[in-house]
Write a structure and sequence with these properties.
The protein has about 160 residues and is α+β, with helices and mostly antiparallel strands. About 45% of the residues lie in helices and about 20% in strands. Helix 2 runs parallel beside helix 4 and helix 3 crosses helix 4.
């Protein structure tokens, strides 16, 4: 399923690189060795230690080009909106993270934020910006400015 060198997303939003695959007796991959920075750990195949492989650079550029057209989360009340945020975060999907970020940004400009909304946006930014940073080789703290500038200048 995954190969040595693949960059993957783990349940806590951490990104890691597969440094080794350990095969069982039947020749099937049984375990992956992951590394993120100076942290190394093992995950057995089939466990929930890996959510998905990181998208390609081309896929990320396509997602970024769609940001102006991605809809925000619409909900009749704060409780349901919080449920939508939670579902979006659990999807570990770039478009869902963008929906959370955009929704909180627009609602914040209108000064309608409910308790906890900003925390969802910060978590979505952390996950999304880290992935953009790795794929486009941009420092993580410069990703937001890069996206803003690209949208304003119509670079995509």
């Amino acid at each position: 399923m995954y190969e040595k060198g693949d960059c993957v997303i783990c349940p806590n939003g951490m990104m890691a690189t597969i440094t080794e695959t350990i095969c069982g007796d039947s020749g099937k991959e049984k375990e992956y060795v992951l590394q993120s920075g100076n942290i190394t750990w093992r995950v057995f195949a089939g466990e929930q230690g890996i959510i998905r492989k990181v998208v390609s650079k081309d896929e990320m550029l396509e997602i970024l080009s769609r940001i102006p057209y991605i809809r925000t989360i619409q909900a009749p009340n704060n409780k349901i909106r919080a449920e939508f945020y939670e579902e979006a975060m659990e999807a570990y999907d770039e478009v869902e993270w963008i929906k959370v970020i955009k929704t909180v940004y627009i609602r914040g400009r209108e000064q309608k934020l409910a308790p906890g909304e900003e925390a969802y946006a910060q978590k979505a930014k952390k996950f999304f910006y880290r992935e953009v940073s790795i794929l486009l080789d941009i420092p993580e703290n410069e990703v937001e400015a890069y996206i803003t500038r690209a949208i304003e200048e119509g670079l995509w």
